[in-house]
Amino acid sequence: MALVWGMGISLVLFYGAYFQRIRNNRLHRLFAIGGVVFNLLSSVYLLYMVRVVGVEMPARFPVVVVTTHRIFATLMALTMLAMLVTGLRRQRAAHIALHRLFLPGYTLTYISGLVIFHG
Length: 119
Description:
The structure is a single chain. By secondary structure, the protein is mainly α. It contains 4 helices and no strands. It has one domain (2-118). The protein is elongated.
C-alpha cells in the first residue's frame, strides 16, 4: 500500500510541475524534483521488497502483460531521469520533447500497475 501512495504522490507532483511550468518556474522545479524523489524512493522500496525480502506481487494477468508493464515502467524511469537532467541543464527543447512522452507514459504506467497488481 505504501508503494501505491508513493507512486501516486509522485504522479500528483509531476502534474503539479506541469501546471506550474509557465506560471512559476521555482514551483515547477520543486514539484518536479519532489516527484522524482518520491518515484525513486518508491521504486527502491519496491525492488527491495521483491528482490531482497521476497514479497510476491501476484497478478491475474499473463506473464507477457506483467513483463510489458515492467519494461514500460523502466523506460518511464529512464525518461524521468533524462527529464531531470535536461531540466537542470536548462536544455529546454529536449526537456519539453521528453515531457510530451513522460507525463502520459507515467500516468499509463501508474494506472496499469494498479490494475495489474492491485485488482
